Amino acid sequence: MLTEKQRRQIRACSKDEKSYQTLLGIITSHQKSLENAKSEFLSVIGHELRTPLTAIQGSLALLAREVPGPLPEKAKQMVEIAIDNSIRLRDLINYFLDLQSLESGDAKLQLQAVELQPLLHQATANLKSFAGKRQIEIRIEEKSKNVWVTADPGRLMQVISNLLSNAVKFSPSSSCITITIDSRGSMGCFSISDQGPGIPESLQPFVFDKFVQADVADSRKSGGSGLGLSICKAIIERLGGKIDFTTTEGIGTTFHVELPISAPQTVFDLAREKNLGG
Ligand SMILES: Nc1ncnc2c1ncn2[C@@H]1O[C@H](COP(=O)(O)OP(=O)(O)OP(=O)(O)O)[C@@H](O)[C@H]1O
Ligand SMILES: [Mg+2]
């Protein structure tokens, strides 16, 4: 998409309305083919990286199981490090390709009526042991009951899992994470609040940008690629919603998500489908 400034520049170079429209058409079509070439290039690169990486992981797994023969203790540790890093690299490639397909519009979303409470409950259950290890309690508060939104359930689960795993990752031991479900006008909302360190002021304007992490030493400790929030934003925007946060250093962080409420008719239809065994 051309920015308003670029359009003004094109207009300034055009003799009249007709030449402006012609020039605009040529540039827009060039831009579209560049975007297509970029997305094709990235998916080829992704594929070319994934294939040898799968072979590397296969060989490392055989070494770790000592199939070729027993390994000295030192070599076993080195193989473990190589395996951990190959997993990080694989996740990074997958996240990056996922983000690329969301941004280019290639990723197809399956929209349907989704109830927020069961999805948030499921995400909480998935993280229970990770949170439990540090005595972190996760509570769900329903300010509004039966909040249904229009979303792709798998993609929405991806957003919730990243926000919740961030909250757990950055929470101190023996603290509490609160998930709140609410509705406001035509939007269904949920928020995830933690009692962690907060997001540093210098990072706040860039937190949804790619590969952004607070402190290198700390982020390495907690792992991750710094792509999670970029993916969340891309998904929520594709779903016609909004994602934002409020944070206070030393007190905690709350991520807020809102999505269009699903029409009661759709909910009624889904309930009827279930009763009919659909
Ligand atoms: N709840 C939070 N409290 C404090 N800082 C946060 C919180 N959520 C995100 N951040 C900051 O924003 C950064 C980016 O988060 P994001 O989810 O994009 O990446 P990540 O969690 O580091 O890695 P990934 O999600 O790709 O595994 C984090 O590394 C952290 O510095
Ligand atoms: Mg994350």
Helix and strand arrangement:
Layout: H1 4-13, H2 17-64, H3 73-104, E1 112-115, H4 116-126, H5 128-132, E2 137-142, E3 148-151, H6 153-170, E4 176-184, E5 187-194, H7 216-222, H8 228-238, E6 242-248, E7 252-260, H9 264-275
Parallel strand pairs: 2-4
Antiparallel strand pairs: 1-3, 4-5, 5-7, 6-7
Helix pairs in contact: 1-2, 2-3, 3-8, 4-6, 6-8
Bound molecules: adenosine-5'-triphosphate and magnesium ion.
CATH class of the largest domain: Alpha Beta
Radius of gyration: 23 Å
Mean pLDDT: 88
Domain count, please report it.
Answer: 2
Oligomer: single chain
Strand order within the widest sheet? 2-4-5-7-6
Fourth CATH level, the homologous superfamily of the largest domain: Histidine kinase-like ATPase, C-terminal domain
CATH topology of the largest domain: Heat Shock Protein 90
- Give a quick account of the main beta sheet: strands, pairing sense, barrel closure: 5 strands, mixed
Distance between the termini: 41 Å
Bound molecules: adenosine-5'-triphosphate, magnesium ion
Principal-axes geometry comes out as: globular
Give the low-pLDDT segments.
none
Report helical residue fraction: 55-70%
From the helix content, strand content and strand pairing, which structural class follows? alpha+beta
Number of H/I helices: 9
Strand percentage lies at: 15-25%
Spell the H/E element sequence.
HHHEHHEEHEEHHEEH
